[in-house]
Design brief:
18% helix; 35% strand; 2 helices; four-stranded mixed β-sheet; RNA Polymerase Alpha Subunit, Chain A, domain 2; alpha+beta; single chain
Length: 140
């Protein structure tokens, strides 16, 4: 049996209700499996960014006894700051089928915007300095 849906009390964090699904061991079932990140991303480290898990769960199909409890994403695949990990990059056993679109982004490197904003501010200062200069032909 699988826990299909679990309801929690949001204030007390108590279990309210669990829906179970009984499945035959020889029939394929589909389920949402959580995605977890492991390893370290060179792309995130070199750019000062962070690895962002964009897709937290993946829909998979497998026999009940072969259903993975989670799918692991190796952050080492994010070698460059602009690289992404797609569903097609996930490593799953041959007896598990991923149902999501293969081009869907699972994880990416998020580069901080502070660096970009600092460059814009410097450009704005140059424009502001030019505004203070007297116009041609005006008596100053």
């Amino acid at each position: 049996a699988f826990a299909r849906e679990i309801q929690w009390d949001p204030r007390r964090d108590d279990l309210i209700h669990v829906d179970f699904l009984v499945a035959e061991a020889t029939r394929l079932v589909s389920a949402r499996v959580p995605v977890v990140i492991s390893g370290e991303s060179e792309g995130a480290r070199s750019s000062g960014g962070t690895v962002v898990l964009q897709l937290r769960e993946v829909d998979v199909e497998a026999l009940p006894l072969e259903m993975p409890s989670e799918l692991e994403v190796d952050a080492v695949l994010l070698a460059e700051p602009d690289s992404v990990i797609r569903v097609s990059d996930l490593k799953v056993p041959s007896n598990v089928t991923i149902l999501n679109d293969s081009e869907e982004v699972v994880a990416r490197v998020d580069i901080p915007r502070v660096v970009v904003e600092a460059e814009v501010e410097e450009g704005e200062e140059a424009v502001a300095e030019g505004d203070d200069a007297p116009e041609e032909g005006s008596a100053g």
